[in-house]
Design brief:
Helix content: 40-55%
Mean pLDDT: 91
Number of helices: 3
Low-confidence stretches: none
Structural class: alpha/beta
Shape: globular
Strand order of the largest sheet: 1-3-5
Radius of gyration: 12 Å
Largest sheet: 3 strands, parallel
Distance between the termini: 32 Å
Order of helices and strands: EEHEEHEH
């Protein structure tokens, strides 16, 4: 069961809408997030994933992320939340 984020970017401009849609999907039982279409992010993408993580955890479920863009992995590492989001096993982004 999963949700696909079809946005090419996750930024402050669209994060609120994406969070609402994602939280609704998680409430329906979707705990797999496909980020393969996402090409650019800002720090709001980390906040979005943390909101998803909290919602899944509140239901006793584990969030799984697929297709995580390098820029998002870098931001999660910068903010020290890569382990929380289970990104710590991914290879370091390349430039």
């Amino acid at each position: 069961i999963g949700m696909k984020i079809d946005a090419a970017a996750i930024t402050m401009d669209n994060a609120g809408t994406l969070v609402e849609a994602g939280l609704a999907a998680i409430a329906r039982g979707d705990t797999v997030v496909d980020l393969s279409a996402v090409r650019s992010v800002d720090s709001s993408a980390v906040a979005l994933l943390l909101a998803f993580y909290r919602a899944a955890r509140a239901q006793g479920k584990t969030l799984a992320l697929h297709g995580v863009p390098d820029a998002l992995v870098s931001l999660a590492r910068l903010y020290g939340v890569e382990s929380l989001l289970a990104l710590d096993g991914l290879p370091a982004p390349t430039r």
